Amino acid sequence: MSVTPLRQLALQGAAVILVLSLAWPYFGWQAEAMPWLETSVAIGGVAFLFATLSRQPWWWRLIHAGFMPLVWATHRLAIDPGWFLLAFLLLLLVYRGALSGQIPLYLSNRQTVAALDRLLEREDPGQVVDLGAGLGSTLIPLADAWPERYFTGIENAPATWLASRLLGVGRPNLQLRWGDLWSTPLGDADVVYAFLSPAPMSRLWAKAQAEMKPGSLFVSNSFPVPGVTAGEVIDVDCTPPRPLYCYRM
Ligand SMILES: C[S@@+](CC[C@H](N)C(=O)[O-])C[C@H]1O[C@@H](n2cnc3c(N)ncnc32)[C@H](O)[C@@H]1O
Question: Would you state the torsion angle of the CA atoms of residues 69, 65, 5, 135, taken in this order, to the nearest 10 degrees?
């Protein structure tokens, strides 16, 4: 688990420990049953305070405030725990990347695919790689538009990858692989496309520099490499803005 989720877990845990260490002895001393609704609301309040003091983004503060009261409310529904396990496993099949590397699933839009299409016309690459290919909705139209070029997508979420395989079937110039982008060699690629999140960009840049050949192009949708000036930034006509940051190796 990366640093941010661990920090949030520690923050919520600290609120739980603080409130319970006061409430349990107090109600035990009074020989009264613990008022779990009030206790969960108090934990939410303390967690919100901790999140505010440690300057977490507003949405993390809301999550901290609501988490324990929602746990209490869900507990009252007396749902069989097996359903939670099933829901967790189903989510994992699609959002594995969010859990393992803060890279969730969201898709490049049509305008971005059109901008990439123009970029391919200009670059004339033989091999194009999409790191974290999602449903293949970026590579499939490009593979159709450029049958003489070879497209490879790497995706680590099993259900997402399977859906991409079904959607992309019957295209000899398209390969959609189930795998980890970090163990994908980039030495043969002429253009590497990534639409990930801010979290992996520094590490990904180090990988691109170590493996990509001179003259090839690394393109990141929306997330620039920290501390490195892109050689070119292509503005894509969409809202919210989704610039393509291009780095020549
Ligand atoms: C923001 S989506 C982009 C999807 C697609 N490239 C597009 O532009 O429409 C990022 C994808 O990367 C996948 N992903 C996250 N970590 C990965 C990893 N270590 N290896 C391969 N894929 C990963 C996620 O599951 C998700 O489908």
Answer: 80
Residue 131 and residue 235 in one domain: yes
Residues 74 and 117 in one domain: no
Within a domain: 66: yes
Q: What is the pTM of this model?
A: 0.77
* Count of domains forming the chain: 2
Distance in Å, CA 61 to ligand 1 centroid: 27
CA of 154, closest atom in ligand 1: 21
Asked whether residue 49 falls in the same domain as residue 129, the answer is: no
Q: Which residue range(s) make up the domain with 203?
A: 110-248
pLDDT of residue 1: 46
- For 141-188, the DSSP string reads HHHHH-TTSEEEEEE--HHHHHHHHHHTTT-TTEEEEES-GGG---TT
Higher pLDDT, 43 or 240: 43
Q: How far is the CA of 196 from the centre of ligand 1 (A)?
A: 6
Establish if 139 belongs to a structural domain: yes
What lies within 8 Å, CB to CB, of 215 at 6+ separation is 248, 249
Residue range 59-73, pLDDT digits in tens = 999 999 999 999 999
Test site for ligand 1: of 96, 103, 162, most ligand atoms within 8 A of the Cβ: 103
Q: Which residue has the higher pLDDT, 49 or 5?
A: 49
Give tens-digit pLDDT for 122-149: 999 999 999 999 999 999 999 999 999 9
Q: Residue 53, CB half-sphere, CA atoms under 13 Å: how many?
A: 8
